[in-house]
Amino acid sequence: MSSQSHMWFRRICALAGVFILGGMLAFPKDKTITKDRIELTNEYGKFVLQNLALTQDRDSVSFSGTITNSTDRNWGVVYLTLQFLDKSGAPIPPEPGVDNTIRIFRLQRGATEPISRTIPWMIIFRAFRSPTGRIADFSVACGGYVFTLARPRESEELAFEDKLIRIAFAVVESQIQFSLQNITDSPIEIGWDQSAFIDFSGESHKVIHSGIKWIDREKPQAPTTVPPTARISDIIYPADYAEWSGSDWLHKPVLPRAELSYKGQTFSVFMPLKINGEVKNYLFTIKVADVLI
């Protein structure tokens, strides 16, 4: 090897060393913060979080554990918001667009459910830029909704049954999920083009369901047939809540984050079902019975 080639080789090795050392400095070894128990007390009782672990690596922050509902309510959705702290105890704000919320749906009284969330690497970069370095601790805040069925008949459960159908709903931010069982000996058809979502203000919206492309949201939809004694699971979403931005589809949430102003308000699903050649109109009204923020 010539002296000039040897010089270039040493320079390349030196640069490689800088990149490697820089990577080691930028991305410390994985670190896990654990907490055996956190109690989040509210006017209805408390939520108990146990076996909590927050693991930091070079790409993300992962959070896991369990939540037990020790309140006197069945919660339609519970929001757990993670707050990251540096060594001085100061909050580390997330980067714009980073969602550090965990959502637990249909958390029943006395039930224990697993919780997990992975936060993208962007929030870690903010942690590295903080004066004291990486995430040293975390705290958890909670909020949530209690839903009840107000119509066709009042019920603490989002479920209804008559001599024709058995139906249950689950309300999440992005959609309304439901399970419908035909308990007759005849097929039942769901008329999607006549179905509607009625929002908090009373405005009616055309809906789409599972399998419909966003670009086809305004087109006619074929009915769904539920055979005798069979059960289907599907979703309902307001067609005009989806909007093309020019590069991606933007989706307005069906259910906003927990706000006290929604307590006592209602929204509905109108669903006409064709049975034995006759259409029976069902209006399922869901009430926000309580709000925790």
How would you characterize the overall build of this protein?
The structure is a single chain. By secondary structure, this protein is mostly beta strands. It folds into 2 domains: 31-146, Immunoglobulin-like (Sandwich); 152-292, Immunoglobulin-like. It is built from 2 helices and 19 strands. The chain has helices at 3-26, 122-129, and strands spanning 31-42, 45-56, 60-69, 75-85, 101-107, 112-120, 137-151, 159-161, 165-171, 176-182, 188-190, 196-198, 204-208, 224-226, 231-238, 242-244, 249-251, 266-275, 278-292. The strands form 3 sheets. Strands 4, 5, 7, 8, 9, 10, 11, 12, 13, 14, 15, 18 and 19 form a 13-stranded antiparallel beta sheet that branches. A 4-stranded antiparallel beta sheet has the order 1-2-3-6. The longest helix has 24 residues, at 3-26.
Brief rundown of the structure:
This protein is mainly beta. Helices cover 11% and strands 50% of the residues. The protein has 2 domains: 116 residues, Immunoglobulin-like (Sandwich), CATH 2.60.40; 141 residues, Sandwich (Immunoglobulin-like), CATH 2.60.40.
Write the layout of secondary structure elements.
Layout: H1 3-26, E1 31-42, E2 45-56, E3 60-69, E4 75-85, E5 101-107, E6 112-120, H2 122-129, E7 137-151, E8 159-161, E9 165-171, E10 176-182, E11 188-190, E12 196-198, E13 204-208, E14 224-226, E15 231-238, E16 242-244, E17 249-251, E18 266-275, E19 278-292
Antiparallel strand pairs: 1-2, 2-3, 3-6, 4-5, 4-7, 7-19, 8-9, 9-10, 10-15, 11-14, 11-18, 12-13, 12-18, 13-15, 16-17, 18-19
